[in-house]
Structures are given as C-alpha cells and as structure tokens.
Amino acid sequence: MRMPLTTTALLALVTLLVASPGAAQDAQSRLWDAAMSGDTLAIRQALADGAKIDSLDTRRNPNGRLALNWAAWHNHVPAIQMLLAMGAPIE
Length: 91
Hints:
Elements: H1 5-19, H2 21-24, H3 27-37, H4 40-48, H5 67-73, H6 77-85
Helix pairs in contact: 3-4, 3-5, 5-6
C-alpha cells in the first residue's frame, strides 16, 4: 500500500523525534552533559526543567561528580561562573 507523501513525511519526522537521543534524555542528564560541554543555555534550561544542581552524576564514576565538577574538569569558565551564581555547592 502506498502512502501519500505528506503521511510519509510526517511518519519520518515522528521517527526522528522519537529516536533522537536528546529527546529522551532527562533534565538531570542534560545538566551534567551541558556542564561537560560548557553550554550555559542548556545548563539554564536543564535547571528550569527540574534538574538538581547538587546531584551527583554516577554514570561514569561510582563516586559521582557534580555539574560544577564537570564544568571545572573541562575548564568551562562561563559555565563554572553561572553554576556558582545559581547556587552550586563548592564542596
């Protein structure tokens, strides 16, 4: 059965959105990933979406790292400054 082009295009779009890794990622993971990349807009959005600034990321290390630790590890000074201004714990 052949589908009209508009239906096919719509199905392709839905498939892309559902399969997109960023679409399924929770706010907390987005915060840690944004801190690693230094993306201050994504940090702000993840926090607005409910991410906890003092939550430990244990995805790569059983001891965990805070978003501030990730930003510092990757030397993203603007992200460090923003996380501190938003209340990130230093210790």
